[in-house]
Write a structure and sequence with these properties.
two-stranded antiparallel sheet, Recombination protein RecR (chains A, B), zinc ion binding (chains A, B), 6 strands, globular, homodimer, alpha/beta, 8 helices
Chain lengths: 199, 199
C-alpha cells in the first residue's frame, strides 16, 4: 500500500498494528478499518487509552509489575502475605496468577528468562533485587513459578542456587497433567512428570 | 481482571483491544503487554498514530474512501479514468482493489450492502450519490464490484436497477475459480459459475 490511494496516516496505523503479536498485515488492515469507521467512538478513545497508559504505567521498583502506582498495588496491599514471594518471568504470568486467584503473597518479576541463545544473562534480569528481597526477615518462602521450558527451568535452577544460603524455603510449581487436559495430546515429558509426581 | 492488581488504565487498554476484529481477551492481553513493555518505543507512538488518524482521516464526500484529503487522493488524481466508476461495499474493498493495481478509474464506496436482516435499506447506503455521479456526462461505465454473497448480489441487483435508465454501461466482476484455488475445495456455486462462464 505504498500507493497514495491510502494516505500516510492510515498506512502508518496499519503498519504499527501489524507488528502486534498475533496480528499480520491482513488482520491489521481489518482492525484499522474497524477503528477508522468510528473515529469518535473507537479510534480516538483507544488513542487516549494508549497515551494514558504510556504516560502513567511503569514497572514497579520493588517487584517489576506494571502499574500506575509505584510501588505497585500488589506491593502496597496490606492484606497479602509478606512471607511468600512468587517469582515469575513476565508481567503476563503475574496477570495469569492473579486471575487464578490462588496466590495471596507478593510477587517478583524477573523480566525474562536466562537464555544463552538470546544473550540474556543474570545481570539482564531482576535477580539481584530478588536475592536482596529474599534476605529480608519476613520472607520465609520463594516459589519459583517459571515456565516449564528449557530457559525457564535453567533460570529456576540458577535462582534456586543463588538462594541456597539465604535460609528461605525454595519451592517450584508442580509438573503434571493440565486440568481439562487429555493424556493423548500431552507430550512424553509431561506424562513422565505427572507419573513420577503421582499422589 | 477486576482485581486491583491490574490497574484501571491497563484493564481499559486490554478491554478496548479485545474488541478489535480478530482479537480476543487472550491476544489482547498479549498485545497490551507487548506495548506496555516498550512505552516510549511502541505504546506512545501507536497512541499518536491513532490520535493523528482519528483527527485527520475522514470519509471522502465524493466517493466515501477514507483519507486525510477531502476529496480523497483518488478523486483528486489527474491520471485516472473519469469514464469508469467502480462501486464497492467497503473501504477495505477499495484497498484490496488498489493493491491489485488492476483498476485506474474512480471509486464509489456504498458503505455496506443492503440487508433485510440487519435493517440496512437503500437510504443507509451512498446509493443516491452514486446515481447522481453516474448521471455526469463523463461517466460511461459503472462496475459493480460487490461481494458474491446474498447481500452483495442483492445490492448489485438493486443498484443496476436504479442505473437502468441512466445510459451508462453496468458491468459486474466475473465469478469463477480464484487464482491458485483448488477445484476440490470450492463450493458448488462457484464451480457452476466458472463452468457456465467458461471461455
Amino acid at each position: 500500500m505504498s500507493n497514495r490511494s491510502v494516505g500516510p496516516e492510515i498506512t502508518r496505523l496499519i503498519e504499527m498494528m501489524s507488528k502486534l503479536p498475533g496480528m499480520g498485515p491482513r488482520s491489521a488492515r481489518r482492525a484499522a478499518l474497524h477503528l477508522l469507521k468510528k473515529p469518535e467512538q473507537l479510534l480516538a478513545p483507544m488513542a487516549r487509552a494508549m497515551a494514558d497508559a504510556a504516560q502513567k504505567v511503569s514497572a514497579c521498583d520493588v517487584c517489576g509489575n506494571f502499574d500506575t502506582l509505584n510501588p505497585c498495588a500488589v506491593c502496597q496491599a496490606t492484606g497479602r502475605d509478606e512471607a511468600v514471594l512468587c517469582v515469575l518471568a513476565d508481567v503476563g504470568d503475574l496477570w495469569a496468577m492473579e486471575r487464578s486467584g490462588v496466590f495471596r503473597g507478593r510477587y517478583h518479576v524477573l523480566g525474562g528468562c536466562l537464555s544463552a541463545l538470546d544473550g540474556i544473562g543474570p545481570d539482564d534480569l531482576n535477580i539481584a533485587s530478588l536475592i536482596s528481597r529474599a534476605g529480608q526477615d519476613q520472607v520465609k518462602e520463594v516459589i519459583l513459578a517459571l515456565n516449564a521450558t528449557v530457559d525457564g527451568q535453567t533460570t529456576a535452577h540458577y535462582v534456586a542456587d543463588q538462594l541456597e544460603n539465604s535460609g528461605v524455603i525454595v519451592s517450584r510449581l508442580a509438573h503434571g497433567v493440565p486440568v481439562g487436559g487429555e493424556l493423548g495430546s500431552l507430550d512424553d515429558g509431561t506424562i513422565a512428570a505427572a507419573f513420577s509426581s503421582r499422589r
